[in-house]
Design brief:
Elements: H1 2-15, H2 19-35, H3 41-69
Helix pairs in contact: 1-2, 2-3
Length: about 70
């Protein structure tokens, strides 16, 4: 059940604004879930993808803001 603790760490890191570290924590949780028989692996993969999507949206918003200022 270590992967559940790792998932909690991912959420805590995300709440603290540390997106890169949160993505890494969710990735580790996915690996640990896979090693534990695959249970919960899909959920952790979704967590990783959701944070990557959020990160990409922030990047695009920043780019648009910079273009607006130019």
């Amino acid at each position: 059940l270590r992967f559940l603790a790792q998932e909690g760490l991912g959420y805590a890191l995300e709440a603290a604004g540390q997106t890169e570290q949160a993505i890494a924590a969710f990735g580790t949780a996915a690996d640990q879930a896979q090693a534990a028989g695959g249970f919960y692996r899909d959920r952790e993969a979704i967590n990783v993808l959701a944070r990557l999507t959020k990160k990409e949206k922030k990047r695009k918003a920043k780019e648009l803001e910079q273009k607006k200022e130019s």
